[in-house]
Structures are given as structure tokens and as C-alpha cells.
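Before the break, one more example. Copy the sequence into your notebook; we will annotate it together after we see the structure.
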Amino acid sequence: MSIYERIEWLIKNNAMTNKEFCQTLGISTGNLGDWKRGKSTPGTNKLIDISSYFDVSLDWLMTGSERNQGQIMERKELYAVKTPDWDDVDKQLTDQEKAFIQEYIEFTRYRKLKGNLE
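Here is what the structure looks like once it is written out:
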């Protein structure tokens, strides 16, 4: 199932029309049509808006499956550090890793502003 198909499923399961969905989330019907045809996919900010609006995880929206909690459970002592030297950390990360971390921070701030995090 594609991202669009999951979005379409959310729209239908919430008894919305495509037009209502687009108006509510500030998406043009043209963009929605492009997503359907596979010409483009929603950008990061729209994915965050959609997942927040429908209260679904980004993992599910993007991949169709939830993250397995067992995959992220590790022993803290294996990776814990005291206060990190952020300049040193920054030098060790690739641009892709930095972009991923920045997206996560922005998503966390967004969810906090929306009242979905304590």
C-alpha cells in the first residue's frame, strides 16, 4: 500500500471527502491528484500535518507498519555518554544524519505545540 493509499484510507475512515481533507489541511486538490498518480509525494511538513491530524504515527503513514519497540530497546550503557561535546558530535555526523535529526526535532516541537506531547 502506498502513502497515498494510506491517506485515502484515512480520509474514507474519517468520513471525509477529498475536498474536505484538502481544505482542512491546506492541500491543493492538484497536489492530492499528483500523489494519487505517483507524480509526487507529500513533503515532510505535510506528512507531519496529516499524521497529527489523524493521530497516526509517521512510521505507519510512510511505511504502513509501526516501529517494533524491540528494535529500539537497547541497554543504555552501550550508548550513553556524559554531556556530549556538540561540536564534536556535529563533525562526526553526515549531512543526511543531521537532516534526519533536524526533522525529528521539528516534528517533536510540532507535536508539543499541538498538545500531543507532555
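The chain has a mean pLDDT of 82. The radius of gyration is 18 Å. Try to locate both features in your own notes.
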